[in-house]
Model the fold of this input.
Amino acid sequence: MTIAGENTENQILTAASQVFILKGFDGARMQAIADQAGINKALLHYYFRSKEKLFDAVFSEVAANLFPAMKQVIEAELEMKEKITFFVKMYVKTLLENPFIPAFVINTLNTNPNRFLTHIKKAGINPMLLQKQIDEEAVLGLIRPMKAEHLLVNIISMCIFPFVARPIIQNIFEMNNDEYQLYLESRQTEIVDFVLKSITV
Amino acid sequence: MTIAGENTENQILTAASQVFILKGFDGARMQAIADQAGINKALLHYYFRSKEKLFDAVFSEVAANLFPAMKQVIEAELEMKEKITFFVKMYVKTLLENPFIPAFVINTLNTNPNRFLTHIKKAGINPMLLQKQIDEEAVLGLIRPMKAEHLLVNIISMCIFPFVARPIIQNIFEMNNDEYQLYLESRQTEIVDFVLKSITV
DNA sequence: GTCTATACTCTGATAGAC
DNA sequence: GTCTATCAGAGTATAGAC
Done:
């Protein structure tokens, strides 16, 4: 396989990511992807047989990067409060670098559930471990007792939502783009504060 | 205008809502809407000139019901903690009755931002009022000082997110559909608890 | 591997009969 | 108002030359 081939394949994947993420599967056009990659439509089909297959390749890659970092933090050897602090900062930082990923996943999830289901292997996150730690620290009086499925979802909700509902929030609070960027950054410490205050006994 | 006409128009709007909400603008097919309404495509164009206009009609209706109830609670004459309790319970209850609306709005927001922008009149929510109340109650020591744009977004995030990320959450925590329904219901009190504990001085 | 040209299907929209 | 039939354009996919 020639070097040119490798490059083209990556070019296509990069272009496809951008278009699919921005428009979703149904809104994306093969022509737009070809343009973005600086090639023609025929070549897309040469490398990936169909639009579906191309989407799968993109989605796999995106999905693959969704959980591992999360899992690593969740399973780290840290006290819960440190873990939360670390997790939120890392997670919001990642989102700031990939602000359109969450909406893309949510969109796929809801309008093309079948397409998503073929990619679900398993998140790989073990909520039992998290629950165990919460229980232990609750006994020690470090935090209050709580269900893992609420704590984790609460935290992730607050991290992600401002990225997917941006236009609405920006409208309600009348922020311009620069202000919203600052707002998103400020949420890192804000969410940590909010959560820690809530779980402190 | 005949009664039959009125009925047909409503039939179309109902069918169109269902299809658009499930598939998004790009994924929706006029044929699917016609089938759902029990009529043919031509009649869709007779009542609404184009797919875009039909979508606008649907989206207006959905968007119109998004904020008013919210606004009413936010501007009610209640102490902040009561207000939050009332708001969360009402809001999650509304979502349980319309579980696909949030994903639909988020999808439209992100893949067809222009389409959404034509509908933004103004949320009508005045965050200044909320901030004023927070400030006043903070002085009285009823709650801790906080920025309205964080408190409100935190609350709404936690209410909405489990509805748009359902498949992922359900997968991680290995819940079946019945369990997830119970989970969603349990979040009403869970979110209230979580927030009140956080904002208590 | 990459291109141009084209086949074929789907879909939004219209014409015209009833 | 409602239907059948059909058009025009867009979009995915393929054929075939280089």
The domain at 65-199 of chain B is CATH 1.10.357 (Tetracycline Repressor; domain 2). Residues 2, 4-5, 8, 39-40, 42-43, 46-47 of chain B lie near DNA strand D (CB under 10 Å from a C1').
